[in-house]
Amino acid sequence: MPVWSWILCLVVLAGAAVLALVAYRLRLVRAAGTPMLLRQLPAEADEGWRHGAAHYTDDALVYYRLSSLRPGPTVSLSRRRIEVTGRRGPSGTEVEIMDDDVVVVELTVGRRGQGGMYEIALTPDLAMAFQSWIEARAPRRARRRPAA
């Protein structure tokens, strides 16, 4: 076989591998559930928003970024450490990428934000579901103690 045919085979195989990764990621994102926009703070006024989907587990909010080829979640936020610090509507040029009725929820993760600060943009019904999920967590005093 000539060298150019080996190169062509390698290019076709690499393309198939990339296509398989994209299909896998899209399947993960679609199966994850709740569509949302997420950004880590600090960020410029209207920058850093990433489209994706979130899945609520018993212990964490698991976020899958739409445009990432990473096999697992992009961000995982511990349910026990999430604190809702504010709510607002889209402002400035955020209106261009969000609907008018979207609610931007400001989050702090961990004590004094040591786990990071985030904003998530959700429709009002999904924001209410997120708030209910946060409020339904076990109280901090109810944590199990290790067996002696």
From TrEMBL:
Highest rank taxon of the organism: Bacteria
Pfam families, per the entry: DUF2550
InterPro entries to which the protein is assigned, alphabetical: DUF2550
Protein name (database record): DUF2550 domain-containing protein
The species this protein was found in: Gordonia spumicola
Taxonomic lineage of the native organism: Bacteria, Bacillati, Actinomycetota, Actinomycetes, Mycobacteriales
